[in-house]
Amino acid sequence: MSQSEMSRAKRHLETTARMKEMLPRFFMRMMERRFSNEPLAWCMVGVPPELLKAFDLLFEWPENFGTMCASRLVAPRFIEVAEGDGYSPELCSYVTNTMGYCKLFKEKGEAPEESPLPGGMGTPAMLLGSGFICEPRWKWFQSVATRFFDVPVYSTDPLAPPWDVDPTDPRIAEHYLTLLREDLAGQIEFLEKQTGKKLDIDALREIMALSHQALAYWRDTLALRRAIPSPMGSTDYFHAIIPQMYLVGDQEAVDFYREMYEEVKNRVERGVGVVEEEKYRLIWFGLPPWFNMGIFNYLESHGAVFAYESTYNVGDYFEVDLSDPLEALVRRTWQRALKMHEFGAEAMPELCNPAVFGGFVGSNLLEELTRDFSLTGAMMHLTRSCRAVSFGEVHTRNRFAQIGLPSLIFESDMADPRLWSDAQIKTRLHAFLETMDKVQKGVNK
Amino acid sequence: MPAGKKVNTKQPRATNLNEEEIRRIKTDTGKPVIGYLCCFAPPEIISAAGAIPYRITGLPGEDNSAADAYTEPYGCTYVRNILARATRGEFDFIDGLVISHSCDMVQRLYGIWTYYHPLPYSYLFNVPHQVSPWAQRFYKRELGFFKESLEQFTGRVVSPEALVEEIGISNQSRTLVRKLYEQRKKLLPGISGSEMLNLLMAGGTLPAKAFQAKLKEALLKAEAAHGQESAKPRILIWGSIMDDNALFRMVEEAGAVVVADDTCIGFRVWEKDVPQTVDPYDGLTEHYFVNFQCPRTDRGPGSKRFDYLVERAHEYKADGIIGYVISFCDPHKLDYPDLRDYLKAEGLPMLLIDDNYSFEPAGAIETRLQAFVEMIG
Ligand code: SF4
Ligand code: SF4
Predict the structure, then answer these.
(1) Per the CB < 8 Å rule, is B70 touching A395?
(2) Into how many domains does chain A fold?
(3) β-strand A58-60 against A40-43: which pairing, if any?
C-alpha cells in the first residue's frame, strides 16, 4: 500500500500546534512514574478520568493509543499480527491494534520498537473497561486479560433507556439511576482494593470542578464555530480532544481550553477563517481516518470546512451540583441519556455522548444544527470495523434528505488504512462537492 | 455435492413451516402474536399475558438488499436478513415485537425497525452486560416493566399463578429436550443434529402441547434406535445464531454426527429448567439472565468462562468442535481466539466456519468440513 498524500495533516490554531510541546511533556512525566513502578491502569472512554485522578492513578487509553498508531501508520503492523492470531479483519481496529501490540509486547518483554509513544503502552496492573457505546469493549479487556496480562478487570455498564420509554417518568429514572449508582459504587470498591487507597471525596470534588471548567471552555469554543467563516477546522478539533482524556481535572487542561477559546474568539472577531473563500460548510459524522487526517485539509483546499463534528463532541456538557461528587458523576451520565432522548436517538440506547448520534430520528436536532451552523452538507465516514459509531448513517442520510441537505457516506476505517484509495476517495469527494454546488445554485436561483 | 450448489435450497425450511403454522394458530386462537428476538425477555411472560410468543428467524442466503434503504452494509448479516424480511412485510402476522438488548446489532435493529415499520406493540428489553448483584436487580426490575407493558397491550393482568403455570409448562418441554439430548450421548445417537435443530425451531413457535407431542414422538424413535453402523466422528457446534440446519446437514453429509451444540435456539435455551422460586421473577432472572450462556454477557476474564463448553464436549464425547460465526458478529468473533486456544489445550480440535449467513459457497465449506472430519475421524 503506497502512502496516501493525505497522511499529513495541518492544524490551524496556535493552541493546538502548541500541543506538540505540551503532550510530550505530559507523556515524559507519565513515563517517569511508570518507571518508578507505579501501578498503571488501562482504561476506556466511559471511565471517568476524574475518578482515576482522585485515586492518583496512572492511566492509559488503548483507544487513544490506537489513534496514535494509526496516525503514525504502524497500526497495520499490529492489526496484521492480531489477524495472524485469529482475530477477524472485521473486528474493531482499535481492538485488533491492541491485540497485536500486546502479542508483540509479550514476545519481546517490552514495547515493540514501532510503538508511537516512547515505551509504548506500559504493563497494566488493572484494566478498567466500559460498555459505553459498543459491544467489542466488553470482549476487548476480557481477552487482553485472558491472553496477555492476567490482571483484574472492572467494567462499568452504563445502560440507558431506549428511545420509546419516557425517562422523565420517575420510576424509569430510578430504574436506571439505581444501576448507575450501584455500578459506580462497584467501580470505587474495585479501585480502592486495587490501589489500597480510600477515595478522597474532597479531592474528587476539586478535580471535577477543574474538569468542568475545562469542558465549559470547550463547549463555548465549539459554539463559536457557528461564525462564518468557520474559525477552526477538524484537524484542530480532533487533536484537541486528547487533553480531555489525559489532562482533564488538571489546571493545565483549564488553561489549554481557555487559551483555545480565546484564540478562536479572537479569530471570529477578526473574521479569520480556516479557508479564505468558504464555499461549503459541513458536518462530520463518525470516527475520523486517523491515518489520513489530511483529508480535512484536502477538502479545505477546495473551500469546504467543517463547522461541526458529531464524534467526541462533549459540547453539551452538563451543569451538575458538585456538592456530592459521586452523585454528580451519576447525574452527568444520566443527563447525557436524557439529552439523547430529547434528540430522539432511538438507535443507540446505550449511553452515548449526545453527539455520537448515529441514529437520530424524529427530533429536530438535524434541522437545528443545519440552521445554527449554516450547513450546506453532511459527510459521514462509514467505518467498516466500528459499526457502533457508523450505525445509523444511512438513516441520518434519509433524514437529511428530508431537510434537503446533501450528504455523502464514504467507507474506510478509523485505524486500518487497507480500504483507502486516494483516487477513489477524491472521485467521491469531488462528486459530492458538485452535488452541493448544484443544490446551492438551485436554492439561490 | 458439487461446488456452487445451493445447499440450503432443500425445502421446506423450518422457518417457512413455522411461519405457516403460526398463521394458522393465530387464526384459530384469535390471540395476538408477539415476535421476539434473542432470549433475554422470557416468552413465559408473553404467554401469561394472553399472547403468543413467536421466535423470529431468518432465511439464510436470501436477498438482504431491502435493508439497504435503512441501514449500512456492514452489520450482522442475520440481523440484516431479518430487517429485509420485515421491510418486505414477511412478518405481517406479528402484532408486537420484543427485542432484547443482547448484542449491538440486535439492539439497533429495534430502533430502525420500529421507526420505519411501527407495530401496535414494541418493547426493547434492556439487559446489563454482567451478572453482578446490581445487574441482576436491574434485570428483575426490567422484567416488571416488560410485564406491565404487555398487560397494557393485551389488557390481561399477568398473575403470579398464570406465570408459574407457564413456567411449569415450558419446563416440561425442557425436560423432554434434555431427554432427547441424552439420546445423543449414545454411540449412535437416535436423533440427528439437523432433526434436533428443526424440532427446537418449532419450540419457539408451537404451543407447548404440540411441541411436546413432537418431542415425545422423536424421543420414542430415538430410544428405539439401535446402533448398526460403526461410530462416526462426533461434532459439537458452537457459535452465532443457528436458525437453519444447513450446516448440520453438511456436517452429516461429510460423514460426522452433530451430537451437541452451543448456539442460540439450540441447547442454550433449553439446557436448564427455570428454577421454581417463591417469587417467579427470581427464577426467571436466574434462568434467562444469570445462567443464559451468550458471549455478549461478560463473565470475567480467563478461560474458565468456557468450562461449561468443555464439559459439554466431554459429556457428549465430542471429537471436535466446529465454530460457526456470522459476518460482523462481534461477540462470537471476539471470543474465538480465546476459545480456540483453550480447546486446543484441552485436546479438542476446532474448525472455524466464517459465513455471511448464506452457507455459500457450499462447495468450499464442504471441502473444509470433510478435511476436518477426516482429521478427527
Ligand atoms: S465504539 Fe467503535 S471504535 Fe470504539 S471500541 Fe467500539 S467498535 Fe471500537
Ligand atoms: S449472530 Fe452475532 S451479531 Fe448477529 S445477532 Fe447474533 S450475536 Fe448478534
Answers:
(1) yes
(2) 1
(3) parallel
